[in-house]
Design brief:
The protein has 265 residues and is α+β, with helices and mostly antiparallel strands. The chain has a single domain, classed as Penicillin V Acylase, Chain A. The chain contains five helices and 13 strands. A seven-stranded antiparallel beta sheet has the order 3-4-5-6-7-8-9, covered by helices on one side. It has a six-stranded antiparallel beta sheet with strand order 10-1-2-11-12-13, covered by helices on one side. The chain starts with a strand and ends in a 14-residue tail after the last strand.
Amino acid sequence: MCLVVFALHRHPGYPLIFAGNRDEFHERPTEAMHWWASPRVLAGRDRTAGGTWLGVTREGRFATVTNYRDPDEQRPDAVSRGQLVLDALAAEDMRRLGDTLEAAGHRYNGFNLIWGDPTGLYYYSNQDGRAQAVSPGVHGLSNGLLNTPWPKVLRVRQGLDRLLSAEAPVTSDALLGMLADPRPAEEASLPDTGVPREWERLLSSPFIVSPAYGTRASTVVLMAADGTISVRERTFDTGGRPLGDQTYEWQARASNRHRSWITGH
């Protein structure tokens, strides 16, 4: 992903609410979200490296990764960051995964990883090298560190906070509408992340449209207090027009391997 916003224990009906945009070069081959045969996860697939940018399990495990933007520190021989999501979903112990990342994070180009379930989320970036539990509340992440106040991160965080403060129901339509904002940041507030100014301008909008690079998919994950999990993905063409729109919904189930926030064990 390249822009995510999420709320942990901020809404009484939904312990975890997530919305995010995946931005990528249009020429990079991709499979839309589907249930994989092995490992058994719901995720899209990057057909170049074989990994994914976001995944959910039947038990309610969740993980997503964003790249850290630093053009001067890109190594062509680095391990694919898409594998991080799969490793997080398969981890025996979510808390101890942070120790593994702290030891092996240098093998990857810059990244941010968020993983967990509605009982708790964790965050690690190999740019500061410290795994941490995520505090309850509304958080945003793009290609800096967690809650770095880039204009588009602030915009979607504020949008989610307003949505949760209103009396209207939380819906995937409302969250997708929030992600579909194509307005760039004002010139004076553009961040300096090491790319040319015209790219800073293009990348500053929550929803990116250009012939070569743009928002390929928007995804919403709603995990309800009663154990219902709903995942919706909308995909887009080079002009920002919808290509597909699919929703998966199921009841979380516990397993001997993974905890469930429903059973509490």
